[in-house]
Specification:
Shape: elongated
Largest sheet: 4 strands, antiparallel
CATH superfamily: Pleckstrin-homology domain (PH domain)/Phosphotyrosine-binding domain (PTB)
Order of helices and strands: EHHEEEEHEEH
């Protein structure tokens, strides 16, 4: 009896522009919870235009800040008008840690900090990540697979 494959779901080309290069393992953006203070101040002083414009800027900045984990790199997409992409080669990651403040913990989010040998950005902070412990384990596994595939070993000096 033949086995029929279900049709593959259509991919969103705005989120996956580098799919031919590598496999995406995880993709997310920062949570708007990081802007709770800005939103509160804007609501308290909504009669002023500046706080509302500031809160709108913070919202747009967070909404346009995205992270994509592939099997080779961690890409950071940012920018409202001028777009920027920072790439961190996974084999360069030396250490990662997970933390979170009270507000992030209440909403099931956390902060992942990656320390690397990258010369332009040795510390990468991914803030307000949902299920940060699981995502950090996914990153750690991808780092180990990338190192094994390239034959790279961690070296402390």
């Amino acid at each position: 009896m033949p086995i029929h494959d279900a049709p593959a779901p259509a991919m969103d080309s705005t989120r996956v522009s580098h799919a031919a290069e590598s496999t995406i393992l995880w993709s997310s953006s920062e949570g708007q919870i990081t802007n709770a203070g800005a939103f509160t101040i804007a609501l308290l002083f909504c009669w002023l235009v500046v706080p509302v414009a500031w809160a709108l800027y913070r919202y747009l900045r967070t909404a346009n800040h995205r992270y994509v984990l592939t099997d080779q790199r961690l890409l950071e997409h940012s920018g409202i008008v001028v777009k920027r992409i920072e790439a961190l080669e996974l084999y360069r990651v030396k250490d990662l840690s997970v933390s979170g403040n009270l507000l992030q913990t209440v909403f099931g989010r956390g902060r992942i900090v990656l320390l690397s040998t990258d010369s332009t950005n040795p510390t990468l902070v991914i803030d307000a990540v949902p299920n940060a412990a699981a995502v950090s384990q996914l990153i750690r596994d991808a780092v180990e697979r990338c190192r094994a595939a390239r034959g790279v070993r961690a070296f402390d000096y």
